[in-house]
Amino acid sequence: MTRKSLIREWGTGYLFILPGVFFVAVFITYPLLQSLLLAFFRWKGVGEWKFVGFENYAKMFTADRFFPLALQNSIVISLGTTVGTVGLGFIFAVLIDLRVRLWRFYRFVYFLPVVISVAAISLLWQRILDPYGLLNTILGRIGLAHAQHN
To answer: N or C: which end of the chain has fewer CB within 10 A?
Structure first.
């Protein structure tokens, strides 16, 4: 492969992952970093930020009367959903494996959400990657017609 075709191939690959990277950066990484930074400041929603260091954390653990209940609720919900979903999955797996009465129905109920989501995503990507689909249209309009696929 020549250097130019290698760069074009890698560039096409990066172009495909760019929307995902953008989404993670804008909607996950930036708010997370902003929250971590804001935790060390006093701010009322408008106006200047005043650096207070770990004072907010000290207040949260000592003076906030709602924090222990909120922490308890978070732990109960996390454990409940984790144990519930793993437990329910285990029960379905045992029922399917033992081939008890109605085991085909249990298998159908258990795998239905998986199959539906894969089918929906497959149809969506089929429309996006169609030669006359969204991706090729966008690439053509922004001047990257050489990156279009047939």
So the answer is: C
